[in-house]
Design brief:
Elements: H1 22-45, H2 49-54, H3 66-73, H4 78-108, H5 114-126, H6 130-143, H7 149-169
Amino acid sequence: MNTTVTLPHSPTLAPKRSRITRQGIVMTVYLIFLMLPIYWLLNMSLKTNEEILSTFSLWPQNFTLANYKTIFTDPSWYGGYINSITYVVMNTVISITVALPAAYAFSRYRFLGDTHLFFWLLTNRMAPPAVFALPLFQLYTTVGLFDTHIGVALAHCLFNVPLAVWILEG
């Protein structure tokens, strides 16, 4: 006594076809466009100076790490590293020291003109740096901060403090 049971036919799912969409193509082209400077930087860093100046190639023909060896072992590069670290540390300390209390005051207290003051602070961030070049030069020359580490750090704080206040106030 054999009985055969037939089950209702369930529709099988067709395998998804991978379609190349317009959005996928646009995103791929956009990512290639974004990655091109990084590729170019790495490509040039792995070439010799003669190869960089003589021919165009997408890949280094004489692969070398001598450029990396030079920037990590040549003492003439150390001054730049020390200056960069000095500016970054000074700028970070000054920006956080100034922005933290300001952001706290903007977020916790309501006072007359707080929205106008906050807007004024952000408009300083929106101004192009060239607007501040001549006044900073005149001020730094008068005060004696021209060509000093603290002068450069304070100039950078002019743009970093409004951003830090805005982020911390958020």
